[in-house]
Amino acid sequence: MLLHSRIPCDIVSSKDEFCGGYNTFVANPEEDLTTDSFLGHLHGKVFGPRNAAESCPETRSPRLPALDALRGLIIVVMALDHANQFIAHGKVGLEQWVGQFPNYQGDELAFLTRFVTHPAAPGFFFLLGAGMVLLATSRRQRGWDNWRIRKHLIVRGILLILFQFFVENPAWGIGQPSGSTVYFGVLYSLGGAMIIGTLLLHLPTRWLAGLSALLIVSTELLLPSARTGFVEYAPVLRLWLVPGYTRGMLVLYPVMPWLGVMGLGMAYGRWLSQDSERACQGGLWLGAAAILLFIPIRLGGGFGNIRPWQGDGWIGFLNVVKYPPSIVFLLITLGVDLLLFGWFARLVAGPTAILWPLVVFGRTPLFFYVTHLYLYGYMGQLIAPEGIGIQRMYPYWVVGLVILFPLCWLYGKFKHSRSSNSLWRFL
Questions:
Q1: Which residues on neighbouring strands pair with residue 246, listed in sequence order?
Q2: CA of 413: how far to CAs of 254, 374, 375, 391, in Å?
Q3: DSSP H/E element including 299
Q4: What is the DSSP letter of 16?
Q5: Lesser CB count within 10 Å: N end or C end of the chain?
């Protein structure tokens, strides 16, 4: 559970699976999520209904394939970020609220390689919230009471936190000297947000959305002044609000701001469960509005940015604070996620299998996450322990995805062959 000398720069995950992943969007939990043959990507199983009205189906439909596709895409770009770290050694630094900010010195490829991965973390927390609501709706229809639903989600949250320490953290030490720092990353934050989120499941939607927005805005209001520099804040403050290092613990994903993102996902999940077609269409408008709102707030350079621009030109304009997530960071990343979701909802309505690989990845996010860390970690040690640069890293990123695809497909079949009470459903 100790972190080694490699400091993870962007450990993001798709642990929507823990709040339901498979079960959240499956009306019949015993139904196999794949077809009988490896190449059998028929719409009846993978993509569901073909008409536009059912592309983002109601609760009677077995899945929401657009959500699977979005989850799949963001874990693919997440893998790019981690391949960059393990193989290219191309990380410039952390987009932190205090201290030295990444300076790309005009290297457009290095910046874009990092920037395109930013929608991943907000997307995972947003999908987590939506998944919790859809799971709760599905389980109530099967006769579960509120306590049983909460207990189910709390157990999954605890498992996420355990995975942080005993499964994820060792992967970051591949090829590195042993260290004594305990890392609290995205799995910790997802698990903590899920546990706390069980208390929010029954809030009215307006209260839920308002509270979530308040958590996000309050993050910047409550952050200590950057002029204080690096201070060993109390561990509880680190875990809840302020990213950084204190007494042998490194926190990059404090719970409070990401709980706000998850809460917005819960509010959107309510909309999906009530009127999925309109929610899919509305996602396009919300996404476009978020990106448009990003522009004036970023140009203003004041509240919403956490810290002033670092750098010049278009790279400086887009290089925003992620730790903790600034308002401008969330506007542009969630905006992109919502646009992609709306677009995928339209694509899966037609007779195309172009999204099939993303759906396969999106339905096995935990397996993908754990496996890809060790795959790219050992790949980097085998190929070039000292790094090979960003341009030469890209083919190895693709090779990794090619290796992961059949593994995820097979694991998906195995998992869905287990009963709904199996431990595999939790993991």
A1: 249
A2: 34, 22, 21, 35
A3: helix 276-300
A4: G
A5: N
User: Of the candidates 36, 42, 114, which has an alpha carbon nearest to the alpha carbon of residue 82?
Assistant: 114
* Angstrom distance (rounded) from CA 387 to CA 177: 17
Query: How many CA atoms, within 13 angstroms, populate the side-chain half-sphere of residue 17?
Result: 28
**Strands of the sheet with 249-251, listed across from one edge:** 182-184, 249-251, 244-246
Which two tokens mark 254? 């404090």
Closest CA to 224 of 213, 237, 235: 237
On the CB side of 359, CA atoms within 13 Å amount to 24
Q: Taking the domains of the chain in order of start, what are their residue ranges?
A: 15-426
Q: Report the pLDDT value the prediction gives residue 420, as an integer from 0 to 100.
A: 64
Residues 6 or more apart whose Cβ sits within 8 Å of residue 147: none
CA distance 349 to 55: 5
Cα separations in angstroms, 238 against 2, 42, 100, 248, 347:
17, 48, 19, 12, 42
CB 129 within 8 A of CB 261: yes
DSSP 358-400: HHHHHTSHHHHHHHHHHHHHHHHHHH-TT---HHHHHHHHHHH
Which pLDDT belongs to residue 311? 80
Helices and strands in the chain, H and E counts: 17, 3
Q: Nearest Cα to 348, choosing from 30, 75, 44? A: 44
CB atoms within 10 A of CB 406: 11
Summarize pLDDT for 368-403 with one digit per residue, the tens: 999 999 999 999 999 988 889 999 999 999 999 999
Interatomic CA distance for residues 338 and 282, integer angstroms: 9
**Separation of alpha carbons 196 and 204, rounded Å:** 16
